[in-house]
Automatic annotation (TrEMBL):
This is Phenylethanolamine N-methyltransferase. Its EC number is 2.1.1.28. PROSITE patterns: NNMT_PNMT_TEMT, SAM_MT_NNMT_PNMT_TEMT. Keywords: Catecholamine biosynthesis, Methyltransferase, S-adenosyl-L-methionine, Transferase. It comes from the Eukaryota. Pathway: Catecholamine biosynthesis; (R)-adrenaline biosynthesis; (R)-adrenaline from (R)-noradrenaline: step 1/1. It comes from Rangifer tarandus platyrhynchus. Belongs to the class I-like SAM-binding methyltransferase superfamily. NNMT/PNMT/TEMT family. It catalyses: (R)-octopamine + S-adenosyl-L-methionine = (R)-synephrine + S-adenosyl-L-homocysteine + H(+); (R)-noradrenaline + S-adenosyl-L-methionine = (R)-adrenaline + S-adenosyl-L-homocysteine + H(+); (R)-normetanephrine + S-adenosyl-L-methionine = (R)-metanephrine + S-adenosyl-L-homocysteine + H(+); phenylethanolamine + S-adenosyl-L-methionine = N-methylphenylethanolamine + S-adenosyl-L-homocysteine + H(+).
Length: 283
């Protein structure tokens, strides 16, 4: 681990930092419904144009899983938020999936969808799109059924703790794979904190296991209803260096430039990165 002291290494306390307290405080105003509308309803949620951000993210995930190299029994999604799209390709390859978030309101939003309760966000356009690009002839209803069956638990998480899931042993560890989308940079006040958070989540992954990380490039803020969240702006090369520093081999790193028509005033994101990284063995 980089930059941790002894008590942190023992898992006793989180990184103590005024910046982290400010981040945690800002998230208390996070509104899942507004976040979903800002990012997953049209125009960003319009999946009909292949150049859009949604199709790009889903394509990166589908193509990576199609290699057949990312598989195992257990997968943890870090900072799931109120979204499930990030697991639509993953769920065919892992039978035990753990979803996680810092906020109870987001965990509750996930429960609504998993239990098919009234008022749940409708992800069917995403499920249909993933079935289409995977080309396996699966129906979107089967896809959603499989994901619902394979999500075994939704847990609280704090990536600023050396043991992000606590010491309770509620998820099978170490996991065979991690997925994380738009979390680390959106909860870290600076690059050093981003690096430590990456170190922390890496402890949840077995050596040789895979991390699929998606995030915002050069973003400094985003909105979720009343909440205005600060984001640490990161560049592609900083992401690559952080992964190497945390003990990964970078298998793939791709970027997407946000087109003008998708710059909607809900954030100042310039682009997106997708990376497939494999935790090195014996380092
Ligand atoms: C930008 S959202 C990403 C949500 C979702 N993964 C997506 O792809 O849209 C960032 C998420 O990080 C969560 N979060 C905030 N503080 C956190 C922390 N300390 N540890 C882990 N997650 C945190 C928030 O609750 C929020 O759901």
């Amino acid at each position: 681990m980089s930059g941790t002291n002894q008590s942190q290494a023992a898992g006793a306390v989180p990184d103590s930092d005024q910046g982290l307290a400010a981040v945690a405080s800002a998230y208390q105003r996070f509104e899942p419904r507004s976040y979903l509308l800002n990012n997953y309803a049209p125009p960003r949620g319009d999946l009909s144009c292949p150049d859009g951000v949604g199709p790009w993210k889903l394509r990166c995930l589908a193509q990576t899983f199609a290699t057949g190299e990312v598989s195992g029994r257990s997968l943890i999604d870090i900072g799931s938020g109120p979204t499930i799209y990030q697991l639509l390709s993953a769920c065919a390859h892992f039978e035990d999936i753990t979803m996680t978030d810092f906020l109870e309101v987001n965990r509750q939003e996930l429960r609504l969808w998993l239990r098919e309760e009234p008022g749940a966000f409708d992800w069917s356009v995403y499920s249909q799109h993933v079935c289409l690009i995977e080309g396996k002839g699966e129906s979107w209803q089967e896809k959603e059924r499989q994901l619902r069956a394979r999500v075994k638990r939704i847990l609280p998480i704090d990536v600023h703790w050396p043991q992000p899931l606590g010491a309770g042993g509620l998820a099978p560890l170490p996991a065979d794979a991690l997925v994380s989308a738009f979390c680390l940079e959106a909860v870290s006040p600076d690059l050093a904190s981003f690096q430590r958070a990456l170190d922390h989540i890496t402890t949840l992954l077995r050596p040789g296991g895979h991390l699929l990380l998606i995030g915002a490039l050069e973003e400094s803020w985003y909105l979720a209803g009343e909440a205005r969240l600060a984001v640490v702006p990161v560049r592609e090369e900083e992401v690559r260096q952080a992964l190497v520093q945390s003990g990964y081999e970078v298998r793939d790193l791709r970027t997407y430039t946000m087109p003008a028509h998708l710059q909607t005033g809900v954030d100042d994101v310039k682009g997106i990165f997708f990376t497939w990284a494999q935790k090195k063995v014996g380092v």
